[in-house]
Design a protein that fits this description.
binds phosphoenolpyruvate; TIM Barrel
């Protein structure tokens, strides 16, 4: 069931810095974002940074129009999990958001859809808002398997139930469009967003935000955002340039 964007689905434009940044570069970027945040015209703005920079985000973004979060979270609360970061640690730095199941983590760190659902559940239990990423590879698309792959990735998330679905955000990120400069056309993106929304129950479908991600830039944002089931963007490379990110939000 396709739903038009409504007041209940405030648009969200979220930057994923990936493993980029330095204290110096971040300070300039964050100051420019805070100064220009009103250009988002009612859309929510957020930034997901590498773990070490969360205190800097907290310091420079507190009280601004921009919320922040991390790019991954452990399923564990605490203990002998070297290198992992728990949801309560993210809460210590006032994170609102956490990305779960970004395709780079699925591909490079072997994260399965059930692990992604466990991370989503752990994040929700601690009051974080997960942004759960799904998306097919080019081989999946060429083989006509887009809906099958998305359905498989979504299944354990849908199993978390309505209370979870009402708090999380979904992001459709075709793997072939991430960091490649190749964007899904607005129609290709809308087709998958519509499919994802149709997998939700009626009340979830009206409320759950579904972001598009994959080489979003100021030049293509307006066309993507004009699609009825696209509620904003998850932005990688272009989120490292303040003006570009703000122009996407202004679109
Ligand atoms: C991402 O990292 O989630 C992403 C969409 O990257 P890019 O915008 O660079 O394609």
């Amino acid at each position: 069931m396709t739903q038009r964007p409504s007041q209940s689905r405030t648009r969200l434009v979220m930057g994923n810095w990936k493993m980029n940044g330095s204290l110096l570069a971040n300070a300039a970027l964050l100051q420019a974002l805070v100064a220009g945040a009103s250009r988002a015209r009612g859309a929510q703005l957020a930034v997901c940074a590498p773990f070490p920079y969360l205190p800097q985000l907290q310091e420079l973004l507190a009280g601004s129009l921009i919320s922040w979060g991390a790019q991954d979270v452990s399923v564990h609360e605490q203990g002998a999990y070297t290198g992992e970061v728990s949801g309560s640690m993210l809460r210590d730095f006032a994170c609102t958001w956490v990305l779960c199941g970004h395709s780079e983590r699925r591909a490079m760190h072997g994260e399965s859809s059930s692990l992604v659902a466990a991370k989503t559940s752990a994040a929700l239990a601690l009051g974080l808002a997960p942004v759960v990423c799904v998306g097919e590879t080019l081989a999946d698309r060429d083989a006509g398997r887009v809906e099958q792959v998305i359905a498989e990735q979504l299944e354990p998330i849908l199993g978390l139930g309505a209370a979870a679905l009402n708090k999380l955000v979904l992001a459709y990120e075709p793997v072939w469009a991430i960091g490649t400069g190749r964007t899904a056309s607005p129609e290709q993106a809308q087709a998958v967003h519509g499919f994802i929304r149709s997998a939700l129950t009626r009340s979830e479908a009206g409320q759950t935000r579904i972001l598009y991600g994959g080489s979003v830039k100021a030049a293509n944002a307006a066309a993507l955002f004009s699609q009825p089931d696209i509620d904003g963007a998850l932005v990688g490379g272009a989120s490292l340039v303040a003006d570009e990110f703000l122009n996407i939000a202004a679109a």
